[in-house]
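For consistency, the fold was encoded as tokens, which produced the following:
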Amino acid sequence: MMINDNVLLITGSGRGIGAATALLAAERGYSICLNYLNDEKSAVNVRDQILSRGGKCITIRADVSDERQVIAMFDDIDRQLGAITHLVNNVGILKQKMAMIDMDGERFQQVLLTNVMSHFYCSREAIKRMSLSRGGRGGAIVNVSSGAAKSGSPFEYVDYAASKGAVDTFTIGLSKEVAADGIRVNCVRPGGIYTDIHADGGEAQRVDRIAKNFPMQRGGTPEEVAYAILWLLSDEASFVTGSFTDLCGGV
């Protein structure tokens, strides 16, 4: 495996879309930083797969909703891999599904803090290192939103949907703000993907239930999302910024 000089941070990358993106990116020569919070075993497993194939990969435990931990993580990446050139803001949490009226404020705040502020903190630190005006060489950011940003997820995850709607708006504004500084910012909106996040919401088989409503009549895989993310990160998408790619089987 050939290593290039691109350094990619993927948040929440021990499982699902993050793990699939890391494995594919490593195949394409990126040096990878896998960020995780609780599931060290899964992150180490992904790292070991990458290393066994000749790739370059480190793992860093950090709560990316905490500003101080994000700053420390980026400093650590600088020391171990060099300044990052690419970022995938993938981390996100989902709570037990319920109607909004049954949610408490603490839950809503935690979802917003994790799913929105993590994108802000990580993007800010990445831009400091990527910006042409600050001595960087440009770069690319991909935010992972959700089809829920458009559906609103009534009676299930209104808080999650609201957080992803914020990610969409953040993508639009940030993409315009940093475009002249050599940084592209795009967004993918997966929906109905077979990942463990559905178990977090209390319905591990949710994709099987809803897939019959998709025009494509099936759920998607993390690898299918990863291919879209890697294209947006790559120079093949060099004239693409502020865009949204829906991966929802036609919904």
